[in-house]
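Changelog-adjacent note: as of this version, every example in the card shows the full chain rather than a window. The one below runs 264 residues end to end.
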Amino acid sequence: MKYTVISKGDEKSNEIMNDLNDRLFSHGFSFDEEKPDIVISVGGDGTLLYAFQTYRHRLQETAFVGVHTGHLGFYADWVPSEIEKLVKAIVTMEKEVVEYPLLEVVIQFDDGKRNESYLALNEGTIKTKEGTFVMDVEINGELFERFRGDGLCISTPSGSTAYNKALGGAIIHPSLASIQIAEMASINNRVFRTIGSPLILPSHHYCDLKPVTGDEFVIGIDHLSFEQGNVRSIRCQVAKEKIRFARYKPFPFWDRVKASFIGE
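Full-length structure tokens:
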């Protein structure tokens, strides 16, 4: 089996990365950065997001494993003290593959001919570069509302525990193929109104965001952020692709939520 290890880059994570490399190599596994069967992320959720974006072109062939070395590792099954157990599990056990839904974000530009497509494991965010963010929100081709505020966050079920949760969104189990739209500081008064509540769309629905004032935005895709001009519309929907996690021990989703936010 071919594997690679991606480290957060701090001393502790690098030590674990080197330890994993030594152990897996001694068991006859092949290190392959280009076409790995398993990607082991050592760090926090940001490291796993980086690993996902690095191998988003191999989602059908590659499974991910997380080792948590930070303060909060929602995607990580393992901690540094369990490295020996992890290697033993990889060597001797048949992995269970668990799939999580992803978000597809497609930006259509003013010329109507060019578009760019992205996948997000956690969320996509759209904010204006300056002034008030004004965007028509269409659901399945029908105008739902004209949003005014700081921006919008569109999250996956697994990403519902991240920025979406901070915005007051619901936590959604990853078995539900859906996306969630959460508002950032919406403007609501006797003149301007928004729904004022997160919206959860199923996999057969899509959302189009169409600029009303301006066409330059700051767009976030997971840990990535970039400025984009000449935007005509942004389509958000559940992606056809899914991320695959290699599980060698049970760690139910609600146990992850409890461990991350409530504790023992």
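Structural remarks: The chain is about 20% helix and 40% strand.
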